[in-house]
Specification:
- The structure is a single chain.
- This protein has 485 residues and is an alpha+beta fold.
- The chain folds into three domains: 93 residues; 105 residues, 3-Layer(aba) Sandwich (D-Maltodextrin-Binding Protein, domain 2); 249 residues, LCP protein (Aminopeptidase), CATH 3.40.630.
- It is built from 14 helices and 19 strands.
- The strands form six sheets. A six-stranded mixed beta sheet has the order 16-11-6-7-8-17, with helices on both faces. Strands 3-2-4-1-5 form a five-stranded mixed beta sheet, sandwiched between helices.
- α9 packs antiparallel against α12 and α10 packs antiparallel against α11.
- It is globular, with a radius of gyration of 28 Å.
- The termini are far apart.
- The model has no long low-confidence stretch (mean pLDDT 88).
- Keywords: Membrane, Transmembrane, Transmembrane helix.
- This is Cell envelope-related transcriptional attenuator domain-containing protein.
- Belongs to the LytR/CpsA/Psr (LCP) family.
Length: 485
């Protein structure tokens, strides 16, 4: 069998490296988050390698060990460039996915008792239904129209609040209720086993408009991000109350990050109607309502949002290979019974979720939980910005694309990544918490009194002052400092 001329093999090896060099440089250029100085440096190195290898491969004697070794190294380098190109392209895809216009989905259910004779929606015209219309009249009107378009005219009763709504269903004064799933948590406060004692026979879905960003040059100007963690598992786009509420101020000039924790039970007027309610309930009216109400509290425009739920939080911690977080005291979580020691703790996903949800183990309850949430955010930021991310880079990319929702544009995210790669800033993370006093006050969404936190005016003013300093490119030093240190 005739052997292939070694000269052609050498040309093939060299051509593969040349082609992969072009692919790598093109990918780095078009994805746009690789700093130009790195792109130029990479191009210079690749050109030097190509020239040097040309002489070592083609100007050495046939069968020369140096020529063979160079060919082997050339193939190895080509493989590395192929892998590098893939991950750069993949990162660009993740950024594009995150930057897609996001729509929240509102699900409204028709619910009956477990033993109800009603088996499907087509039986509804023969029975009496009830709903609570005052909290979101447009959604209820839309739902009724959709039901009647499907099954015909229905008999409808209006309840004054969720307590009355549930009472009517359980006492069989009505045969079914119409419930926006965003408000299911309020019903569960009335009936602990509501989910087990009822069933959904029909559901209407409604998409809500995307939340527009107030864009800035994120590499030159400070900006504010609302971080919302809803208390649901599963689909991230589902409208629900906001259990974790954090305002994150980022200043790329001073290289500072300001974390401001907003307790979920802070009592403040809803932006939509001026009625007092818990801040956690703003999420039930949609993400825009949470952002607008928070903007009213701090008297500042909020540029962007980041949203995740319990499932996405756990997926991210898993992708990172767990997270190491500092605790100010030892305690055992009520969820899962995990023991947290004072000082450093390396937590897996379930332990991390239990850590950030825990409040009953602390004297100051929700305030301590807020501080632990700040510790967790600080720990995640530091791990993502450190070389440790390299070992889990692929998993993190896959997870982030499916687990986080934001309205930041792809160009803005690329610019932030490029800045981090170029400057490798050592972010100074400062923490603050809005405080207040416990009280029982009427809440609009509930239609009755509930346990709330009346915010201290001085606390809100201090939060506003810190934000003003951040926006003015002044260095901030809070009393809490970096809780992760």
């Amino acid at each position: 069998m005739k052997k292939i001329d070694n000269k052609y093999l050498r040309r093939i090896v060299y051509s593969i490296q040349f082609l992969m060099s072009i692919v790598l440089l093109s990918t780095m250029y078009f994805i746009q988050f690789v700093p130009m100085k790195y792109l130029i440096a990479t191009a210079v190195v690749l050109v030097i390698l190509m020239v040097g290898e040309y002489f070592l491969i083609f100007y050495k004697k046939k069968g020369s060990k140096r020529s063979l070794l160079t060919q082997f190294l050339s193939l190895l380098l080509s493989c590395l460039m192929a892998v590098g190109s893939f991950y750069i392209y993949k990162t660009g895809q993740v950024v594009d996915l995150l930057a897609e216009e996001q729509f929240q989905t509102r699900a409204i259910s028709v619910i009956v008792l477990k033993d109800s004779v009603i088996k499907n929606e087509h039986q509804l015209p023969d029975h009496l239904l009830s709903h609570v219309s005052y909290v979101d009249e447009s959604t209820m009107d839309y739902t009724v129209d959709q039901i009647e378009a499907e099954v015909g005219k229905i008999s409808l009763d209006d309840s004054s609040d969720f307590h009355q709504l549930v009472t009517k269903l359980y006492q069989k004064d009505v045969d079914a209720i119409i419930l926006d799933e965003a408000f299911r948590s309020l019903v569960e406060q009335e009936k602990e086993h509501f989910n087990e004692e009822t069933r959904v026979i029909y559901q209407v879905k409604r998409d809500e408009a995307a939340v527009n960003a107030k864009s800035v040059d994120v590499t030159q100007k400070p900006f504010l991000v609302y971080v919302s963690g809803n208390d649901e598992y599963g689909d991230l786009t589902t409208v629900s109350r906001s259990d974790v509420n954090m305002l994150v101020g980022i200043n790329p000039v001073t290289q500072q990050i300001l974390l401001i924790s907003i307790p979920r039970d802070i009592y403040y007027p809803l932006h939509r109607n001026g009625q007092y309610d818990k801040f956690t309930h703003t999420g039930m009216y949609g993400l825009q309502e949470s952002i607008d109400t928070l903007a009213d509290i701090i008297d500042q425009d909020i540029n962007y949002y980041v949203r995740m739920n319990f499932t996405s939080f756990m997926d991210i911690v898993d992708a990172l290979g767990g997270i190491t977080v500092n605790s100010s005291e030892a305690f055992t979580t009520k969820i899962g019974g995990y023991h947290i020691q004072e000082g450093e703790n390396h937590l897996n996903a379930k332990q991390a979720l239990a850590f950030v949800r825990e409040r009953k183990s602390f004297i100051d309850g929700d305030f301590a939980r807020g501080r632990n949430q700040q510790r967790m955010i600080s720990a995640i930021v530091k791990k993502v910005c450190s070389p440790a991310i390299l070992t889990s880079f692929s998993d993190v990319l896959d997870t982030v694309s499916q687990s986080i929702e934001t309205n930041m544009l792809s160009d803005e995210m690329n610019a932030l990544v490029s800045m981090q790669l170029s400057d490798m800033p050592d972010w100074d993370i400062q923490s603050y918490q809005i405080t207040g006093d416990s009280a029982s006050m009427p809440c609009y969404s509930l239609g009755m009194n509930a346990s709330v936190i009346i915010p201290h005016e001085l606390s809100i003013q201090q939060a506003s002052d810190y934000i003003d300093q951040l926006m003015a490119n002044e260095k901030i030093e809070t009393e809490l400092g970096d809780l992760q240190q």
